[in-house]
Design brief:
The complex is a heterodimer of chains A (291) and B (303). Chain A has 291 residues and is mainly alpha-helical. Chain A has one domain. Helix content of chain A is 67%, strand content 3%. Chain A has a two-stranded antiparallel sheet. In chain A, a hairpin with a 4-residue loop joins strand 1 and strand 2. Chain A starts with a helix and ends in a 5-residue tail after the last helix. In chain B, the strands form three sheets. A six-stranded mixed sheet of chain B has the order 6-7-8-3-9-10, sandwiched between helices. In chain B, strands 2-1-4-5 form a four-stranded antiparallel sheet. A four-stranded antiparallel sheet of chain B has the order 12-13-11-14, with helices on one face. In chain B, strand 1 and strand 2 form a beta hairpin. Chain B has two domains: 219 residues, Rossmann fold (3-Layer(aba) Sandwich), CATH 3.40.50; 77 residues, Alpha-Beta Plaits, CATH 3.30.70. Chain B has eleven helices and 14 strands. Chain B is of the alpha/beta class. The chains are: A mainly alpha (291), B alpha/beta (303). Chains A and B meet through helix 1 and helix 5 of A and helix 2 and helix 3 of B.
């Protein structure tokens, strides 16, 4: 199957649309970094204004680690939309171009083609995430330096020592890859249902918005299904930044408060990926290629 | 005995209430150039797509190279090259890139020299490194044919291969198909709306209408001078028809929704003319129609 994966990767590489997502992420991150570089101290003061009387933080609050956290909070909501641009076009775009019949009259089976396309879309998604990590983490570390990570959660603060932060980002990016691959798989499923490019992209984005709202609403009826919705779990990369404390309320280095929650989220997302890709294969195998 | 390259038995395809292909059976033997004729919507493309496993048949059996398409799809498609309707390609890739990519999909190694030779064969060598989005429809069609021929297939299926080509391009494709069959022994299944093209290249013809087989046979037999179709135009067709019904020509009258047609040997036309004049039929014209197009139109217009 490697030759057809290579072909799919080559097509992604040659398509102008591929680079929109890379360009959008770079532009957003660089603009935010520039803004924080110029006016970061005022922003940090604004963040700290409510706790300045009760807590004194030594060192540099606005460091590369905090910038990366701010960027991830902002971008990991929007990156799925960029992933949908490519993933939701993988099958329907070919149907729209009429090239699906070129592919499906080769000796490779439809299952092989669908899997190859999903592997290619997944590699694209991971490359996008690596690009995001490079700009948001490494570039921020280079521009702003590193220090302890000070996070203000809704009703508590978290202080993670500098040497205990980097691996958490690695974990968060690995987790984010599961979230984005779920979006890619959903886009793929939508793509298998249509013969045009725009419909599946819009449908994927709409589905993400719809399920995100369901995941966010605190209504008893929806609470039953919430644990099974992929959108409930997509943002749980933040769990890597909740840390256990000992009896004296000191942070335990190297700990994560709720490892089980992360494991459960990865399981739910993986099951969704499997279901979405499996359904795509089933649909494409049954489909008459009329375009 | 010739081997059947394609054997189709009682093939049907239904889309909702529409029966696109209805109990179609035919055989294509090795080395034939098999012309597949039908009006738009007659079921030609649906049949071709079923042969290529793009559409799932509702009923019937397809055997290619003596093997059932179900169960041997991969091995069968390895030996087929096809252009289906429009030459749809990737606009952001060049001709060279297209051929390089599709070369990777075949079991046998296809060399760079073979890719270059194919580009040359379809007349795209000079534009090999230009993106397809800059190509004319004819150039895209030729590239599609290049992709179909790249792996040296035993069976070539061409659906409307002369679409968008200029007269020279059409002549080139005609020559190419003849050469593939005659010089290389390839089997070619070709459909076209240009019936005159089919008439010039096909050794066998299948005519399909509303999903059903109307006629099939060697081109020479369908165009047999002994089966010349004659159209008679008179001032009073009813009277003329009645007089013919009462004569020895009764068995030669063809039932048509409009006009008066007879199927008679070419050498009998003067005798028919004499009979019409002797019978005081006010004759306006007597025209023999022995081209495939006339045959095709007459055959399909009665249904």
């Amino acid at each position: 199957m490697w030759p057809i994966i290579q072909i799919e990767l080559f097509k992604i590489y040659k398509r102008p649309r591929t680079y929109i997502a890379f360009g959008a992420i770079a532009a957003l991150i660089l603009v935010i970094q520039m803004g924080l570089k110029i006016d970061g101290e005022a922003y940090a003061a604004f963040l700290m204004k409510d706790i300045n009387d009760t807590l004194t933080v030594d060192g540099k609050v606005l460091n590369g680690y905090l910038i990366c956290y701010i960027l991830l909070q902002l971008l990991l909501v929007h990156v799925p939309l960029l992933v949908a641009l490519i993933a939701a076009d993988m099958l329907s775009g070919e149907a729209n171009l009429g090239t699906l019949r070129l592919l499906f009259t080769t000796p490779y089976s439809r299952t092989q083609w669908v899997l190859a396309k999903f592997v290619a879309a997944s590699l694209y998604t991971i490359l996008l995430l690596i690009w995001l990590a490079f700009l948001a983490l490494f570039l921020s570390m280079w521009i702003f330096g590193t220090d302890d990570l000070f996070l203000m959660k809704s009703n508590y603060v978290v202080l993670i020592q500098e040497q205990d932060v980097f691996w958490r980002y690695l974990g968060a990016f690995v987790f984010a890859s599961f979230s984005l691959l779920t979006v890619a798989a959903l886009g793929f499923l939508m793509s298998s249902l249509a013969n045009n490019s725009i419909g599946p992209i819009v449908a994927t984005i709409s589905a993400i918005v719809f399920f995100t709202i369901l995941s966010t609403l605190n209504i008893p009826l929806f609470n039953v299904v919430k644990p099974y919705l992929f959108t409930t779990h997509m943002n749980n990369w933040k769990e890597f930044f909740d840390i256990q404390v000992n009896e004296s309320n000191d942070a335990i280095t190297g700990s994560i408060l709720n490892v089980a929650k992360i494991k459960n989220s990865i399981l739910v997302l993986t099951v969704h990926i499997g279901l979405f890709v499996g359904a795509s294969i089933w649909i494409m195998k049954k489909k008459d290629i009329l375009s | 005995m010739s081997m059947s390259v394609i054997k189709v038995q009682a093939l049907s395809k239904t889309f909702g209430a529409l029966k696109a292909v209805d109990q179609l059976s035919f055989e294509v033997e090795a080395g034939q150039v098999y012309g597949f004729l039908g009006q738009n919507g007659s079921g030609k493309s649906t049949t071709i797509r079923m042969l290529l496993s793009l559409i799932h048949p509702s009923e019937g059996k397809i055997e290619i190279f003596g093997k059932s398409l179900i169960g041997h799809r991969s091995a069968i498609l390895e030996q087929i090259g096809a252009v289906i309707e429009r030459p749809d390609l990737y606009p952001y890739l060049t001709a060279q890139e297209h051929l390089t990519l599709f070369a990777k999909l075949r079991k046998q190694k296809i060399s760079a020299a073979k890719i270059e030779a194919t580009l040359s064969q379809v007349g795209l060598l000079a534009r090999a490194h230009d993106k397809v989005q800059t190509y004319s429809l004819g150039m895209k069609q030729r590239l599609g044919i290049g992709i179909a021929l790249l792996h040296d297939p035993a069976l070539i299926i061409l659906d409307e291969p002369t679409n968008g080509l200029d007269p020279q391009g059409i002549a080139d494709i005609r020559q190419l198909i003849k050469s593939l069959s005659k010089d290389q022994g390839k089997t070619v299944l070709v459909s076209s709306h240009l019936l005159s093209e089919i008439e010039q290249i096909a050794t066998h013809i299948l005519i399909i209408h509303q999903g059903k087989k109307m006629a099939e046979g060697p081109t020479s037999s369908l165009l047999d001078p002994n089966k010349t179709i004659v159209q008679i135009k008179t001032l009073d067709d009813q009277d003329a028809k009645q007089k013919l019904m009462d004569s020895a020509y009764r068995a030669n009258i063809l039932e048509r929704s409009e006009g008066l047609y007879l199927s008679i040997p070419k050498l009998d036309i003067p005798g028919l003319n004499t009979f019409l004049v002797a019978s005081n039929i006010a004759l306006l014209s007597l025209e023999s129609k022995n081209s495939l197009e006339d045959y095709f139109l007459q055959l399909t217009s009665t249904y």
